[in-house]
Specification:
This protein has 271 residues and is α/β, with parallel strands linked by helices. The protein has a domain at 1-75 and 191-263: 3-Layer(aba) Sandwich (Rossmann fold), CATH 3.40.50. Helix content is 35%, strand content 24%. The chain has nine helices and eleven strands. Strands 1, 2, 3, 4, 5, 6, 7, 8, 9, 10 and 11 form an eleven-stranded mixed sheet that branches. A hairpin with a 6-residue loop joins strand 1 (2-11) and strand 2 (18-28). It is globular, with a radius of gyration of 19 Å. The structure holds adenosine-5'-triphosphate. Adenosine-5'-triphosphate (ATP) binds next to strand 2 and helix 1.
Length: 271
């Protein structure tokens, strides 16, 4: 569905140039849940911005259903980490959620219904008339997720969406996202620093090297679904996958970028 081929991105030029991404190739299938992990500064956000058409790659291609992405595609919605900057404090929750729908759905009744369904999906029906600042951090992040869902995207890109909330809220939001994925079949691509989170959520974990980044390894996650915060994380296989991804990230953080991109995971061979 989404295909990235030999993506390279350098910011600036000459002596000021920063080579963020050297060579990324990956595909995301319809309905798949892919998590991206990598050391800080590896270019994860840069990659997401290239995928949703907000940044132009220096070279390489991004295609969606075979068509090149040259600007923000209507099939993709994004949720970013910092809800305090992505929600408009002077708009109510329902207006915030309805904002991106104005250009997509003409009927106000249709928009209102989509907003109500999305708020219901994240457990916030009844909070539509509140303002973001009247809600807790976790609730505000659920509003941001509802805004992504109301748009009914085919692909939801999530960039560190749970980074600014406490551990318990984070676990609740992870389960919310899994439930939404099961209910809607939306394709998910999520960037996280949290390796447990990546293994818990994903069908595949893509490990990026340190900058300038390449895909170090793609790790298939063969844990059974539905997943559960306690039983899934107790499985020996969970510990094995987690340790494998952690080792890769530690190694690349120490050694720098990998010499050869896209090695296939040996840990996934049992699949
Ligand atoms: N607009 C920009 N101009 C110049 N350099 C940039 C710009 N945006 C990002 N960079 C640089 O590109 C590299 C990759 O940044 P990016 O934010 O994509 O990494 P990341 O993996 O998402 O980081 P983190 O995990 O810390 O959020 C970094 O070295 C960063 O300083």
């Amino acid at each position: 569905m989404l295909s990235v081929t030999n993506l390279r991105k350098t910011y600036g030029s000459g002596g000021q140039a920063v080579e963020a991404i050297r060579d990324l190739t990956l595909t995301v299938d319809k309905g798949e849940f892919v998590c991206i992990v990598g050391p800080s500064g590896a270019g994860k956000t840069t990659m997401l911005k290239c995928l949703c058409g907000l940044l132009k790659p220096s070279s390489g291609t991004v295609t969606l259903d075979g068509a090149p992405v040259t600007g923000p595609p209507k099939e993709i919605a994004s949720v970013f980490q910092d809800y305090s900057r992505s929600l408009m404090p002077w708009f109510t929750v329902q207006r915030n959620v309805g904002l991106p729908l104005r250009n997509r759905y003409r009927s106000a009744a249709d928009r209102a219904e989509r907003v109500a369904t999305a708020l219901d999906a994240v457990g916030l029906s009844g909070f539509g008339d509140r303002y973001p600042w009247q809600l807790s951090g976790g609730m505000q992040q659920r509003v941001a997720i509802a805004r992504g869902l109301a748009y009914a995207p085919e692909i939801l890109l999530l960039d560190e969406p749970f980074a600014s909330v406490d551990a318990q809220t984070r676990a609740d939001l992870e389960d919310l996202i899994l439930r939404v994925r099961d209910d809607t079949g939306v394709t998910m691509l999520l960037v996280t620093h949290d390796i447990d989170e990546a293994v818990y959520l994903a069908d595949r974990v893509v490990v990026m090297s340190a900058r300038p980044s390449v895909v170090l390894e793609t790790v298939p996650v063969d844990l059974p679904r539905p997943r559960d915060q306690v039983t899934t994380k107790r499985l020996p296989r969970f510990a094995e996958l987690r340790a494998h991804v952690l080792t890769l990230i530690r190694r690349t953080a120490l050694d720098g970028a990998a010499p050869t991109p896209d090695q296939h995971s040996t840990i996934g061979a049992r699949r």
